[in-house]
Amino acid sequence: MNQLEGLNLGGPIGRRAVLRAGSLGFLGITLGRILELEAALGPVKGGPTGKKAEACILLWLDGGPSHIDTWDPKPNSSFKPIATNVGGIQISELLPRMSKKMDKLAVIRSMHTEENNHGVAHHYAMTGHRPSPAMKFPAFSSVITKELGQRHNVPPNVMVPEISASKRDYFRSHFLGAQYDPLQIPDPNRQDYNIPELSLPGSLTLERIEARNAFLELVDGRYRQAVESTEYANLDKFRQQALNMVLSQSVRQAFDLSREPEKLKDAYGRNMFGQSVLIARRLVEAGSRFVTAYDRKRVETGRNWDTHGTNDKQHKDVLVPVLDQTLSTLLTDLEERGLLESTLVIAMGEFGRTYDLNPGGGRDHWCHCWSMVLGGGGIRGGQIIGASDERGAYVADRMVTIGDLLATIYKALGIDWTREYMHPIGRPLKIANSINDETGKPIEELI
Q: What DSSP element (H or E) covers 60?
């Protein structure tokens, strides 16, 4: 059967589909078309700041960590505060490794968002917009990918490990185009880990690819003689880019954890999250613009950060030790490779947890005041931004919105945070949207 039969090449195409190498006809037309569109749209240059960071790694702590048990210790936490390597900054005793790295990170203790349930809170944190039945909003990871453009044929936007279909929508590019959606890859800690999208089937050799490509060029050449149009001027370049992305040894190697020393794998943590963050570092080093290491329900423990029950036990025994190990190792690894100044690192969930325990010993959702950390990429570490009240319940000083956070991230990457995109329905959308549809403001102390 013709592998192109039944394909609608004019409709929306997901990134996973366009990277499959099982059909060169599909590859040569569709991925080339995607790359052509990407070039036509192009990264938007300029903006009010010079470029500092070149890429971003997001450690997404799915479910929302307890801020008073991590970055903003309070007397109503079961865990004591400890000193850090920055005078005057204390964090939870559950983060001993990070206590030695606080000069590399800034803590925002006054995050305030407007959605208190999973799903809508994911959407709000990733876009700065409340969900609307009339339109879809692009995630800031896709905005960054669009604005900065692709490097070295490496997939520019990646999520590891892949997430459930029910949550995938919150991290997508939507009207910006499928070429800015994250490539979803499997859990790299699994023994059968591989990336089929970047592997050639045994029946498809390099020689067959070259033969099919030559035939495709012949057909295109005859077609262009019949239909003259400037849109064909760069087709050869786009097709070659598509081939390079799939056939490039450097791209395949970026996903290959076997090339890392066993000692470094141990340092990141022999678990789904640790190995995902190690892959994130490899991809950014190879050229990816944005990689999300998704700390979802862990296969090793069946737990995530949504601690409605036994909060203290889960934070102490399962959740925070892995974060402490992995994040501290990432910062060290990036610094030793000379990548920390060019790589923005963010660790956050969709909200925090309540300041008091429920009858099951858990902490419930809390969007009114919570904490997150960021560093690298020109961010000035060793700082605390904002403050919560004595219980960690509400903002006591300097509210920071998602729009403010996004404006700070964009500024670090040299992107004009005041930019607006025109939605297909005709409405302008702020890329750093804050409360009441105001434009967010960068945190000047950080960047």
A: strand 55-61
Asked if the bond preceding 161 is cis, omega within 30° of 0, the reply is yes
Q: Are 353 and 64 in contact (CB under 8 A)?
A: yes
- Say if CB 110 and CB 388 are below 8 A apart: yes
Tell me the pLDDT tens digit for each residue of 106-141.
Answer: 999 999 999 999 999 999 999 999 999 889 999 999
pLDDT at 42 over 60: no
| Secondary structure class of 352 (helix, strand, coil) | strand
Nearest to 432 by CA among 76, 47, 14, 19: 47
What are the phi and psi torsion angles at 217 (to 5°)?
Answer: -65, -40
Q: Quick check: 128 and 406 in contact, CB under 8 A? A: yes
Give the type of residue at 207: E
119-126 long-range contacts, CB within 8 A, separation 24+: 119/166, 119/167, 119/170, 121/64, 121/350, 121/351, 121/365, 121/367, 122/167, 122/170, 122/171, 122/350, 123/169, 123/170, 124/350, 124/402, 125/348, 125/349, 125/350, 125/351, 125/402, 126/170, 126/171
| Nearest alpha-carbon partner for 243 in 216, 268, 221, 270 | 216
Rg (CA), the chain: 23
Q: Are 179 and 249 in contact (CB under 8 A)?
A: no
Residue 266: how many CB atoms within 10 A of its CB? 12
Q: Give one DSSP letter per residue of 377-411, joined into a string.
A: TT---SEEE-EE-TTSSSEEE--B-HHHHHHHHHH
Quote the crossing angle between the two packed helices 235-247 and 32-41, to the nearest 10°: 120
214-224 pLDDT, tens digit per residue, is 555 555 555 55
DSSP string, 78-91: SS-EEE-SSTT-EE
| 8 Å CB contact between 403 and 434 | yes
Residue 212 has pLDDT above 90, yes or no: no
This prediction's pTM = 0.83
Distance CA 403, CA 387 (A): 18
DSSP conformational letter for 199: S
Residue with tokens 């994040």: 327
List the one residue out of 55, 84, 45, 46 whose CA is nearest residue 378: 55
- Note whether 369 and 393 are within 8 A (CB): yes
Return the amino acid letter for 35: L
Is residue 143 helix, strand or coil?
helix
Return the closest-CA partner of residue 195 out of 277, 252, 248: 252
Average pLDDT over residues 381-406: 98
Structure tokens at 46: 């300029």
- Torsion of the alpha carbons at 409, 415, 418 and 423, rounded to the nearest 10: -100
Three-state secondary-structure class, residue 429: strand
Q: How far apart are CA 306 and CA 304, in angstroms?
A: 6
| 8 Å CB contact between 84 and 100 | yes
CA distance 293 to 274: 9
